[in-house]
Amino acid sequence: MAGGENGPAVPLLGTTKRTAARREGCPACRLDEANSTSDGVPYLNFFYIWIVCLTAAASRTGIA
User: Fold this and answer.
1) Residuewise pLDDT in 10s, the chain (64 residues)
2) According to the lineage, what is the superkingdom (predicted)?
3) Distance separating alpha carbons of residues 34 and 38, to the nearest angstrom
4) At a CB cut-off of 8 Å and minimum separation 6, what does 1 contact?
5) Among residues 20, 43, 48, 50, which one has the least CA distance to residue 32?
6) In 3D, which of 17, 12, 48, 14 has the Cα closest to residue 32?
7) What is the pTM of this model?
């Protein structure tokens, strides 16, 4: 089935890269740009999420 008699199989989704221009204000474009420029762990983003979770939990338990 993977190729058979007619040669190699063709991938269903294709392998062409999209070279579309990045649009201003596009969230996916900004995320792609951030992923391509940084290759480390986004500790600052994890810190923001941790702070939001901490304050949400504090407001539910009556600590704050």
Assistant:
1) 555 677 667 666 665 555 556 778 888 888 888 888 888 888 988 999 999 999 999 888 877 6
2) Eukaryota
3) 6
4) 9
5) 20
6) 17
7) 0.44
Q: What pLDDT sits at residue 51?
A: 95
CA-to-CA dists, residue 36 to 29, 30, 40, 60, angstroms = 11, 10, 11, 38
Take residue 2 and report the two structure tokens written for it.
């993977």
Residue type, 12: L
- The DSSP code sequence of 4-43 is GGGSSPPPSS--PPP-PPPPTT-HHHHHHHHHHH--S--H
Tell me the CA distances in angstroms from 40 to 11, 14, 31, 47, one per residue in order: 31, 29, 14, 15
Nearest to 44 by CA among 34, 57, 36: 34
